[in-house]
Amino acid sequence: MRHEPNITAAMPARQRHYGMDWLRIGAFALLILYHIGMVFAPWGWVVKSATTYPALIAPMAFLTPWRLALLFAVSGYASAKLFVRTPDVTVFLRSRSARLLVPLAFGMAVFVPVEMWVRVRGGGYAPGYLHFWAVDYWRVGAFHGVGFPSWEHLWFVAYLWAYTLGLGAVLALGWRAAPLAAWLAEGRRLLWAPIVALATVKLALMFVVAERQGLFSDWAGHAEYAPMFGLGFVLAGHRTLWPPLASVFVPAIATALLAGMVVVGIEVRYPGEALPPHALMALDRAARIAMAWSMICVLFQAADRWLNRDHAWRGPLARAVFPAYILHHTALIVAAWWTLPMGFALLAEFAILAVASLAACFAGYAIGSRVGWIGTVIGMPPR
């Protein structure tokens, strides 16, 4: 099934945008640091330090609205670059499914069980890991206070695959992105129009559907992440949008800072599991959308303006990003579960968790680079 909708004709001649590679590398590095911070922050997480630090609320609340939206937008950009190389929808979907579903299946069988075992151990589960993996991991329903099955951190891969299927469907139908790109290029629409549209949908869903993670239940999440993925795809395909992107650079910074102040203020006032009044909750959700899209505008433009240059480290780091995402979470959880009872000081514990996470990423990359099938199952792209 070969379709060449307008999106391909608008693609820039040079396929590799080094700035977007650096942005993707930075986004995933930030994700690892964020997950380490969750061990010590007041919010609930898989493994928690006995002492939490309210000082982490403000910086982490400032990151929360845009870190995942950025990952989906960057993934949409990368999908456009992959599609233009072989603008056949069937080939594109087959290739992307292999790249996403093989690591997802391997991670669900090998890495996620470790995390789930740590979870149920916290609920009083006594048997060892091998018994858990052979008998109890494959159950459905609540078990020792934990719901089964679970994607754990691999939910991002499942969502990304679902959005890729949706993208394939609209491409197969002959979708023309040029009219949307032309409309967004007018004035400052590229900044405010996505914010208004996404915030409207988000608020419409807010008190109707639960904000619950799950491929078939997270409608509030899909209402934000799927459009971010699609907008990243459109930005990659239409260089005519990049001059307007440059023109909204300063307003986008101002929007991000203002929205971030609102999000941080509400989070500081209602920390942890405390719920703000409905009006403040609605303001918080709208501010998060505004910050997410404005930060994407800022960071895409920064990557295009200042980071679009190659370096000897770029290629290896770009290849290591997806394996690092697959591996770091499990390594972090095991390291935290094992070392937190030892009572190390905050900085020492943070350093231990950072070293354990990075060591797992480095080991996975080193082994995957030498053993082809291991590289494939942990998401390493072919050279």
TrEMBL record:
Residue ranges of every copy of the Acyltransferase domain listed in the record: 18-364
Domain of life: Bacteria
Pfam families: Acyl_transf_3
Annotated TM spans: 21-45, 57-79, 100-118, 156-178, 190-210, 222-238, 245-266, 286-304, 316-338, 344-367
Coiled-coil regions listed: none
Keywords: Acyltransferase, Membrane, Transferase, Transmembrane, Transmembrane helix
A single MF term (Gene Ontology): acyltransferase activity
The protein's name: Acyltransferase family protein
Species in which this protein is naturally found: Sphingomonas donggukensis
Phylogenetic lineage: Bacteria, Pseudomonadati, Pseudomonadota, Alphaproteobacteria, Sphingomonadales
